[in-house]
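Re-run with default settings, no changes from the original entry. Doing this only to confirm the output is reproducible before filing.
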Amino acid sequence: MKIMTTWSLKPGEFSEAVRRFLAGQGTPPEGVKLLGRWHSADLNSGFGLVETNDPILIYRFLATWADVLEFKNHIVIEDTEAGAALASLGKK
């Protein structure tokens, strides 16, 4: 499954978040494939797209950042998958 994560920086945590990121702590664990990550130009938020068969792995990973970042996670599907699902609704 693909999970789109959005994050925002908690007040006063910029330096710590930068330290962890530059130390390589932003790399997801084995079993979670990072498909892309984008950072907002205001340095306050960002987006990450991962793929995993085990959502517990992403949960554990994000928990290590929960003291400095706030998260929202969305299971996402691509247009072709959404189109097929919607097309099947009309066949009932």
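DSSP finds three helices and four strands in the chain. The longest strand covers residues 2-9.
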